[in-house]
Specification:
Order of helices and strands: HH
Helix content: over 70%
Number of strands: 0
Number of helices: 2
Structural class: mainly alpha
Largest sheet: none
């Protein structure tokens, strides 16, 4: 084998290595951008939770033992009514979703996002 064939082999291997490193660096950069996007989303959610916790801290809770029985019963009935209302809303939402799902035409639906 002549000496210049070794030079060609090593130059080819070096170029292939540089191309691979460049590709890996590009993929790492894209993933890093994704991490930053998710971190931004996480900080927004954390700010909302902080605001909600401040509202909860400001609320004064009264002990039931210090209230009249009629007030405690009224509060409990209110909580039960709100719970039943939320349960009914969830039930209606599930039924609406089931109606939508059963009416879909699978041949016209786009199943995967185009990227």
């Amino acid at each position: 084998m002549p000496w210049w064939s070794w030079v060609i082999i090593w130059v080819g291997l070096s170029l292939a290595m540089l191309a691979m490193l460049g590709l890996m660096a590009w993929r790492l950069f894209k993933k890093l951008l994704g991490v930053f996007r998710e971190l931004e989303s996480l900080t927004e959610k954390a700010e909302l939770l902080d605001a909600a916790s401040e509202v909860l801290d400001d609320q004064q809770f009264e002990r039931s033992i210090l209230l009249k029985k009629s007030e405690v019963v009224a509060r409990r009935e209110y909580v039960r009514a709100r719970s039943a209302e939320r349960k009914e809303n969830r039930h209606v939402a599930r039924l609406d979703r089931a109606r939508v799902i059963t009416r879909l035409d699978a041949s016209t639906r786009q199943w995967f996002k185009d990227e």
